[in-house]
Amino acid sequence: MALLQKVVGTIFLYVLTKAIYLIYLHPLSKYSGPKSWILSRIPYLVYMNSGKLPFRIKELHDTYGSVVRVSGDELSINDPQAWRDIYNRRDMLRPSQWGGRPPGVEAHSLISAPAADHARFRKALNPAFSEKATREYEPVVRAYIEKLLSRLDVAATKGPVDIVEWANFTTFDIISEITWSKSYGCLDKATGHAFMGVLLHFQAFLVAASIKYFPWLDRLLAVITPKSAFRLLEDIFQDTHERLHARSMIKEPSHADLVGHLKLHQEQAADADKFREAEIEQNILTVIVGGSETLTTAISGAFHHLLASPRVLSKLVHEIRSSFAKEAHIDTNALSKLPYLNAVIDETLRLCPPFPDMLRRQVPASGAIIAGHAIPSHTTVSVSCYSMFKSASYFSDPDSFLPERWIDGRDGAEAREAFHPFALGPHNCLGQPLARMEMRLMITLILWRYDVGISKGDSLRKWDEQKIYWTWEKQPLLVGLSNVDA
Ligand code: HEM
Ligand SMILES: *[C@@H]1O[C@H](CO)[C@@H](O)[C@H](O)[C@H]1NC(C)=O
To answer: Where are the transmembrane segments (predicted)?
Structure first.
């Protein structure tokens, strides 16, 4: 009995001392946040795994101000200056929970790589997604959107279509065709791609990352998990391997593709800059994942808000239809100059950022000055797009879908500095030009060809009622399409 008392007493004392340390003495103790979050990771992880973390963090900023201590060792920073201070630095990498490699994989990808490997990868990949290279993909993008439209022509006669699903098929076909000149065929089959579904099981990734916050649990699971649990992952790598092999058999592909760019790189680069075979595979998978579901979110978000705001929709339709004499004249160069279209796209990325949060970084051993605060080493820091883009400090009427704000400058220069939906710095979005091209073309060509509307009896839910697991968990968005020429 006496022993038990001693043990309980010791544990109690330990917990108490640790709590006092975390709240009063820890180097981050001057930053406020909910006490239960500071004392334990658990509330944070519970919110994250129930798809509500970005919403909660926004509320915390509203309560506690621009710097919130969201965990013992983590700050969320809602200040435009933090974008530059965090993301422009090469030595701010993802914390270990978020930058790991899949089990059994040795090769790094852009996501997991240490700074030097990451720089080597970007040097090879940037030319394949530059503005110039992206222009060469336009015919491919166009062809798949034409295919989408011909599928919609048929589907729409039977009733409303789920724009989320169709956008998803299209973005997958485009990114796979651009990668290795062979699409996943989602539009043809009108089904998703099973393998990719595994990589896109974002909820599972969040659970895996959560476990890594408890290293003893992580080690335990690594020991007891049967090898077969990783079979699906191995299938994906095998599939990737086979597709790369099939591509290598094509001497003269019909259009420029990523593998072609990488082949050129491998021939011309100094030995130290070359990719290893396994690194190519991991990076290709990163590009495919990064370049598909994100765009599905953006396109679904655009149609959601257009349908919710008939005024904006008719203004955009007018701009599109009055700018071109016929469909064949539409191209991305011309579309990049349409002010309202591009404002609608930015406004969509503001309210439906494909990465609402998840841009966490770890402060290096030397510490960092972020938005004027001296932040100690090993702190996890991030800017949450969702909090920043909906902040009343930077955007007037922040919850309203008002594309005009990007044209009339009502929010001032700080709004531009707060708004980085593609992040910035060495880890920014590799595919921004491609993403803008796909958004412009897909939105425009759909609105050129169809009058769109919510079908009678259906009503739109609020976009923010959807959960967020890494990206938005998109509910079907049923849209009635009637062909303008019919
Ligand atoms: C509207 C669509 C898109 C948005 C809003 C978006 C946004 C972002 C953001 C915020 C990041 C930084 C992530 C981080 O720091 O953790 C990122 C990274 C990345 N994106 Fe995109 N993205 C989009 C579409 C695309 C497309 C079409 C591609 C295809 C090439 C792509 C490929 C990537 C890759 C490979 C990375 C990792 C870059 C690195 O770590 O060096 N993204 N994206
Ligand atoms: C998009 O397609 C992928 C695979 O084809 C699938 O895993 C994912 O769930 C789809 N997303 C939506 C929102 O339909």
So the answer is: 7-25
Q: 409 CB contacts (<8 Å, ≥6 apart)?
A: none
Q: Is 120 in the pocket of ligand 1 (CB under 6 A)?
A: no
Q: Is 352 annotated as a binding residue?
A: no
State the chain's maximal CA–CA distance in angstroms. Answer: 90
| Ligand nearest the Cα atom of residue 294 | 1
Q: Is residue 204 part of a domain?
A: yes
The tokens for 161 are 């279509």
Element (H, E) at 375: strand 373-375
Give 235-288 pLDDT, tens digit per residue. Answer: 888 888 899 999 988 888 889 999 999 999 999 999 999 999 899 999 999 999
Burial pattern 150-173, b for ≥16 Cβ within 10 A else e, equals: ebbeebbeeebbbbbbbbbbbbbb
CATH of the domain at 230: 1.10.630.10
Decide: 279 in ligand 2 pocket, CB within 6 A: no
Q: How far is the CA of 176 from the centre of ligand 2 (A)?
A: 14
435 pocket-lining for ligand 1 (C-beta < 6 Å): yes
CA nearest 395: which of 376, 383, 411, 371? 411
pTM passes above 0.85: yes
**Cβ count near 219 (within 10 Å):** 10
Does residue 287 belong to any structural domain of this protein? yes
- Weakly modelled stretches of the chain, pLDDT under 70: 1, 229, 457, 486
Q: Tell me the β-bridge partners of 471.
A: 469
Domain range enclosing 338: 14-483
CB neighbours of residue 107 within 10 Å = 17
Q: Please tell me the total count of domains within the chain.
A: 1
Going from the Cα of 247 to the center of ligand 1, the distance in angstroms, rounded, reads 24
Q: Is the CB of 385 under 6 A from ligand 1?
A: no
Q: How far is CA 134 from CA 28, 54, 155, 191, 445, in A?
A: 44, 32, 30, 27, 19
The residue whose C-alpha atom lies closest to atom 40 belonging to ligand 1 is 427
